[in-house]
Amino acid sequence: MPTLRRLPETLVNQIAAGEVVERPASALKELVENALDAGARRIDIVLREGGRSLIQVSDDGCGMEADGLSLAVERHATSKLPDDDLTHISTLGFRGEALPSIGAVSRLSITSRARGGDTAWRIRVEGGRLSPPEPAALTAGTRVEVRDLFFATPARLKFLKAPRTEQGHAVEIIQRLAMAHPEVAFSLGDGSRTLLDLAAAPDLATGDDPYRARLARLGAILGREFEDNALPVNAERAGYRLTGHAGLPTLHKRTSAQQFLFVNGRPVRDKLLLGAVRGAYMDFISADRHPMVALFLELPAEEVDVNVHPAKTEVRFRDAGLVRGLIVGALKHALAEAGHRASTTVGTATLGAFRPQEGPYQGSYPRPHSGASASWATYHPSHPSQGLAEAQAAWQAPDRGGSGGGFAFDSAPAARVETGAPMPVEHDPNHPLGAAKAQVHANYIIAQTGDGLVIVDQHAAHERLVYERMKEALAAGGVARQALLLPEVVELEEAAVDRLVSRAPELEALGLVLEGFGPGAVVVREVPALLGQTDAAGLVRDLAEDLAEADAALSLEDRLADVCGTMACHGSVRSGRRLNADEMNALLRQMEATPHSGQCNHGRPTYVELKLSDIERLFGRR
Ligand SMILES: Nc1ncnc2c1ncn2[C@@H]1O[C@H](COP(=O)(O)OP(=O)(O)OP(=O)(O)O)[C@@H](O)[C@H]1O
Ligand SMILES: [Mg+2]
User: Fold this and answer.
1) Which ligand gives the minimal distance to the CA of 115?
2) Which CA distances in Å does 25 have to 22, 137, 148, 203, 277?
């Protein structure tokens, strides 16, 4: 019979370490959370070999007395549950497990000076063996050093990745914690280089604008791109509060790694929260792209269980539905407030396309005029980008324009270029999309704004407008219809007729009234008014095709984005349709007035903006 026995303390701690300390970054997380719990305002970190040979964390927090130090490395000793109440956890730590676990698998030393104390003390733990505290030198706070992590558990050591990889994980952990604590300064170095250096923002509570302080910290970590393209989020429901920043839908990424979620100041990666973010952006981003967000959920401690995951990165909510509803509602509201705004990255990317990607002349643009016969390509022999190639083609196009001697474009602007007095709306801050000047290639509207120009993809913009109006009309009880003077008979395959007729009530709700018309045809009587002049036959044929591909179980309303896309293709503003100046300006004004009009139903921008200063830079004037 096998003998049953109690395991030695060191082994118990090593087993716990197996869960708590997965890699250097998880040990670092525990140490920095302890520093934050101790009220630190400055935390300095040094990692050697990605944390494998050294993790050092210094803080200026409350510190510990000599006997506190001895207790701290004992299992289940904590200062953080004064009332023994696991339902009221207000600190990041609560189990009294981290330090003994780390001490069991490394060479740990902690030096600390209690606030107001007259000496500092140091304690060492080596592979679980504890030596008594001895006096040490330290002016304030606590310094923890973890050397040779996992030396006592060689199996774990083998699983460590290259120092660079481990260092990357560590940096990421600190970035997350730093986002939640902009009032604390952080630095992280590898002994010779500084990898992170974040100054403390003014106190969030007393600072003039907590959003600004937090956004500054987010910008320092996530980059200017996020700072410039984030919308503030602020919502409250039943004592649950969500704040933070959400990226515009046009600022999307390949993975959800740039989604940062916090529950009561604790960074978490929680399926429920990530799912809610996805749901809120569903309408604006295609399924394989992911928005950037940093969201902070605060709720009463008893409403959330943080004791469900060894690394404390998952939580359980008492009322998951409330959390989801709050997040989806708050994000949708923030996105609606953004109106037509598309992210500045769109314009920047556009400029990038104009600029030569490589080649010796980067940054100094010779003026084409200076070398009379030299073509643009002579200056940029290697890979002119597409934008340049087009510019070059226009430059060299033979003058087919006749009298004026100006440039000849393949496709002349359909709207006359305005040469008279500028329209007042150009400088009107209420009309950020400016005044339409021309339409090119029968799909792009060029508009002049106060300080630049805007290029609108009329097709994408119209598709979005149709979608938003359709949603609005459905919510308000019905889509306005417009009767055709002459009902239109459309001949189709029998199967297509069946599909359309079986969906006729749903189509009617969307503004399209049709019925079967003998074998192999339907008759269209009314169309959605918001489409304007419609090619009813084309619309019905395309819808029939859509329906063939669609899952029969899905209602048309569930697939509204697709249906509206199809409808927009047959509306009055589809691409290829020449617009006059009034029609173009009307489209711009509608975009300004419509929420979410900055991107099409697939997350692509509907317009790009180029600032005059950027244009001047393109031409080497700046
Ligand atoms: N940097 C620090 N400054 C002051 N006190 C500290 C510091 N680090 C640890 N302590 C003290 O040591 C105790 C034990 O720390 P440890 O991380 O092991 O457990 P915990 O933080 O209480 O809970 P958890 O295991 O969930 O992290 C803490 O409760 C705290 O009182
Ligand atoms: Mg702790």
Assistant:
1) 1
2) 8, 27, 14, 27, 26
